[in-house]
Amino acid sequence: MARESFQRELNSLVGEVLELGRDVESCLDTMAYAMENWDAEMVRQEIGIDSRYKEWGTQIDDGCLILQARQAPVARDLRLMHSVHVVTNHLVRAGTLCEHICQGIVNTTGYERDPELAATLFEMAKEARSLFR
């Protein structure tokens, strides 16, 4: 019974990481669309989202630590929990960087843009989205 409870909680943590990843991917989609169309209004909604990502990441990390403390995970489970922690940190960092780019789009509204630089930045955004998928 305890093992089943542990597995449910671990699966829940993995699900949270996947949900965080989908949310960051959505932010990347919004950012890439806004970059392509220079739509500052669209990305204004993403400003401040990094604090939510950081809080979400902290909750996942805390869940991993609590689960470790309450249960006696075997090596395989410990490796998965470590992976959850590492992936969560990368997702939070990617979400924060996405917000910084959104802020840059908003802050440069009305300024002339270099078409070559804009094309390169858009291509980088598409590659980032592809990486997340």
Strand content: under 5%
Low-confidence stretches: none
In total, how many beta strands?
Answer: 0
Give, in order, the helices and strands: HHHHH
Please give the count of helices.
5
Shape: elongated
- Main sheet record: none
How many whole angstroms does the radius of gyration measure? Answer: 18 Å
Overall mean pLDDT stands at 89
- Helix % is over 70%
Q: Which structural class do the helices and strands define?
A: mainly alpha
Distance between the termini: 36 Å
What does this structure look like?
- It is a single chain.
- With 133 residues, this protein is mostly helical.
- 86% of the residues lie in helices and 0% in strands.
- The protein is built from five helices and no strands.
- It has helices at residues 2-37, 40-44, 49-70, 75-107, 115-132.
- Helix 1 packs antiparallel against helix 3, helix 1 runs parallel beside helix 4 (75-107) and helix 1 packs antiparallel against helix 5.
